[in-house]
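Per reviewer request, we include the raw input and output of the structure prediction for the construct analysed in the revised manuscript.
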Amino acid sequence: MPPKTAEKSAVSMPLLIFYLVMWYALNVQYNLYNKKILNAFPYPYTVSLSQLGAGLLYIIPVWLLGIGGRSFPTSFSVGGITTLAGFHGSGHFATVISLGAGSVAFANVVKAAEPFCSVLMGVVINGAVPPVMEMLALLPIIGGVMIASMAEPEFSMLAFGMAMSSNFLFAARGALGKNMMSGAPGQKKLSGADVFALNTIFAFLIMTPVAIYMEGSLIQAAWSKYTTGTAPLDAMKIFNGELDAKVPPSPEYFAAYLVVCGLYYYTYNEMALMVLDLLDPVGQAVGNTVKRVVIIIAGTIVFNKPLTQQGMIGSAVAIGGVLLYSLVKAQASAPKAKKA
């Protein structure tokens, strides 16, 4: 048995390193592209919907061509996926609205409170009350988010409220998604990647009427007003993330930019699932914590909005609290050694 574990670890290490690097890179790119779009084109419902739609451009060809041996999962609960997709789509819309209303760093600090929301939703949905140590480990997260919020020079109640709403919505999605991935009686067990793919498709269908209702009457005029540029489509500029709110792009350039941003969103989530599949709970905790730090640093550098000293303290406390909570939870869920 031990040799088998060692062999698996040796084979997985190169993949793990590659997946980690790609996960962080794609996640950072998504956050930066998304914020640039929202700075220039402040229509978060339309932007959110375009990102969900870009996911379809990725997963449908993968299924049709059988890339990686993947195909459309035929055994799943439509009602269950619809419920999950409702939480997924609403959570994604809330996240994008938050990123548009505040800074990348602030939104990600508030998003660090997701474990706290997950505990609350776990109690509400599954009646699962965590051990006392896990609940105590949540206190630094709550305190850190409060400190960072009070220190935010451009504090926006909309940014804070939407980030917290997305936390609760994603926490509910996570609590319900565990049941979906475990497989209902008579149904094939779904992988995390397949659940995310189905979530994306159903969420796009569910959220389309919402986006049309909220911005449908405005979007055509806004698009025509912003995309007045005549410069040809330049793939290298898109790859470099070039988008200036003061220099209007051509319609083709901006449409391609939206698609690329959406593909970053979809692929970073798929890469996250691959990473988490290779890591133990402690590794997951460290990986998620480092990811949050990388995004915050990148956001402050690119958009030249450094955190205040109090903001840095609050961010450090909150993110450190996430790591502490994850480690405590991993320790509590670890199998106990049997007595001889």
